Amino acid sequence: MNTQSAQPEGLDGPGGARETARPWVMARALRRPAWVAPNTSTAAALLVERRIAPALQPLLPTPPAASAALRDLGWPSAPGPAWQSEERHPADAAAWEITVVIDASLSMEFWGPVVEEFVALLRRVGLYRQASLPTLDTESVPARIGTPAPDGAEADGTARTARPVLLLTDGLAMAWRTSAVVPQLHAWALRSPVAVVHLLPEKLWPSTAIVPQLRALRSPSPGAPTALVDCEGAAPVTVAVPVLALHENHLHRWAKFIARGPEGWSHLPTILVSADDSGSAAAEPSDPAPQPPGRTAATAQDLLRDFGSASPEAKTLATRLSGVPLNLPVMHRMQYRLLPGTAPDLLSEIFIAGLLVPVVHRAEIRSHDRVTFEFQDGVRELLLASLNKATTADVFEDAVHFLEQELGVREVQGWDRLLRNPQALASGPVTEHSEPFLRVQLAVLKALSGPYDAHARRLERTLTQSVRAEGTERSGPA
Fold it and tell me: What whole-number distance in Å separates Cα of residue 391 and Cα of residue 116?
């Protein structure tokens, strides 16, 4: 697989080959809406571009209050989609409050910055007031909620309209594939309006365990629990839970559906759930649920052949990541510099394809001083073979400089000078933490070959001896 023709080589940086990417980077930047402030974080800019805040206007207390909240966020006054001029709700309408629950699966770590910005956005417009953020443990069977969801009553015990519940997920975890999350969704639906926000783009939904169908819904009253909503074609024992993409079209339709109540039928993607977990969020299609990414019997060639159907951006990102040690800060930084304005679904694509696997315990997955992800056996080498040597050197030097200078990782100290003088840097001791970094260095040196062959051979001998010594210790007397 060769993606070199997809984008110009190099990263945007001062001097040298990295400058070659600048025209392309600037071209992408010019395609951004004019209202995205230059100092806006990448995740926040994504929400601005998708017009998330204006889409939620029906849930804000009054049109004047909605306009004031959006002005505070720096949104433009220029007219947008036609629905922005609609009359939303009575002038004395009360503000809504949304409960956000986060899928706590490992693959959701790719979406951490976007989730944080989404919650911050809801808080700024007054739709989110919780002190803590509930999480749903979807790696367990059955799924467990980290913090109880609100039960629809005020602190003094008086009844009120239940808070809408939004569950943010990528639909990849065990509890989705086994339907263990379904009873939890059903329990929430009995007392609250519930929706699933599917963070992956709709084109990737068939690759997950959440594959909704478009259905017509009608609510009996504003903020009615999902269990009371009429759904065309649904069996009486099932509840239709909306599934929303993270863009203005879906979110606005849902917000209007929640706020307005019985004003005709609304069409939204939905999954059917029931109290019995034999009903499945993923059972509607005939295809079996996807298998979890991990170490399988598939060869590196097989994995990359299947990955050939991925988006061009995901393939470009994967090839560049093959030249660097992998953890969440490095992967996010690489994507934002190489493909500005793109969402974490590119990392999800690579993960879904089975190219990436975690190599640390779940509790350590956010560690910035460890290699926390690795390519499947043989994949890194094949991806490096598709990358020209100048780009390989660029991405490696850039990543190790970031790891040492900004993250303080001692295991890569001086590595940003390694390629200029490979003889001057000793490999250092091989430890549990340093070995994964050293194996990435070895793969890069082999890909560069030529003047780096001698150092690569020395490093390979060192790593081989370390493995033998470790094996001797394990097989020795107790």
Answer: 32
Q: Which string of b and e fits 346-379 if b means at least 16 CB within 10 Å?
A: bbbbbbbbbbbbbebeeeebebebbbbbbbbeeb
Backbone φ and ψ of 376, nearest 5° = -60, 155
Nearest C-alpha neighbor of 348 from the set 416, 406, 290, 285: 290
CB hemisphere CA count around 49 (13 angstroms):
19
Q: What is the spatial distance between Cα 83 and Cα 76, in angstroms, rounded to a whole number?
A: 16
Do the strands 213-218 and 144-145 form a parallel or antiparallel pair, or are they unpaired? unpaired
Give CA separation, 206 vs 70, 171, 209, 314, 335, in Å: 35, 10, 7, 17, 24
**Residue 171's CB: how many other CB atoms inside 10 A?**
31
Residue type, 41: S
* Residue range 371-396, pLDDT digits in tens: 999 999 999 999 999 999 999 999 99
Residue 234 φ/ψ region, left for φ over 0, alpha for ψ in the -120 to 50 degree band, beta for the rest: beta
- Write b or e for each residue in 58-95: b if 16 or more Cβ atoms lie within 10 A of its Cβ, otherwise e: bbbbbbebbbebbeeeebeeeeeeebbeeebbeeebee
Residue 293: count of CB within 10 angstroms of its CB = 20
Q: What is the CA radius of gyration of the chain?
A: 25
- List helix spans (H) across 50-132: 52-55, 63-72, 112-124
Cis peptide before 285 (omega within 30 of 0): no
CA distance 385 to 396: 14
Distances 474 to 155, 432, 439 between C-alpha atoms, Å: 58, 15, 22
Give the whole-angstrom CA distance, residue 65 versus residue 125.
Answer: 9
Tell me how far apart the alpha carbons of residues 59 and 263 are, in angstroms, rounded to a whole number: 16
CA 418 to CA 426: how far, in whole Å? 10
Q: What are phi and psi of 139, to 5 degrees?
A: -85, -15
CB burial of residue 429 (10 Å; 0-12, 13-18, 19+): exposed
**Closest by Cα among 201, 313, 205 to 246:** 201
At position 420, the amino acid (one-letter code) is R
Could you tell me the two tokens for 359?
A: 């190599």
Render pLDDT for 285-337 as a digit per residue (tens, 0 to 9). Answer: 333 333 444 444 589 999 999 999 999 999 999 999 999 999 999 999 999 99
Containing 218, the helix (H) or strand (E) segment is: strand 213-218
Q: What is the pLDDT of residues 410-445, one digit of tens each?
A: 999 999 888 988 777 766 789 999 999 999 999 999
